Automatic annotation (TrEMBL):
Name of the protein described by the UniProt record: DUF5675 domain-containing protein
Domain DUF5675: 5-116
């Protein structure tokens, strides 16, 4: 299964939309692009494998695997990229500004449910990050 994340790069944050085929799953917020700098930038465009992961901080969440020059890049809830993200991606229900959104936990649970369903069936799940074209 392949999810497509179409991004729009803005000065204060990166906003996006995740699609599964023609179905919109959720919006996303990230840090602005800053040359893939650790804790200061969103990750590069490309195709990444998604895995299940558990931590005390986030519980069960989604790991974005094998990001160049980065580690522990996750999907987890957050509503304000500049204050709550260190390079990870936060699903949100709607966008409220550059790198800002609302109802992140609800959007995260929807995305996690879809990803985990495919993984539990033994299927690989990929995230393909692209620049949004007009």
């Amino acid at each position: 299964m392949e999810l497509i994340l179409k991004r729009m790069y803005l000065p204060e944050g990166t906003n996006g939309k995740i699609w599964l085929q023609q179905q919109l799953i959720c919006m996303t917020i990230e840090l602005p692009w800053n040359d893939n700098m650790i804790r200061k930038s969103c990750i590069p465009e490309g195709r990444y494998s998604l895995k299940r992961r558990f931590s005390e901080r986030f519980g069960w969440h989604i790991l974005i695997d094998l990001v160049p020059n980065r580690s522990l890049i996750l999907f987890h809830p957050a509503n304000y990229a500049q204050k709550e993200l260190n390079g990870c991606i936060a699903p949100v229900s709607s966008l409220s500004g550059e790198g800002k959104g609302i109802d992140s936990r609800k959007a995260f649970e929807r995305l996690k449910s879809i990803v985990y369903d495919y993984l539990q069936r033994g299927e690989e799940v990929f995230l393909h990050i692209q620049k949004q074209t007009l």
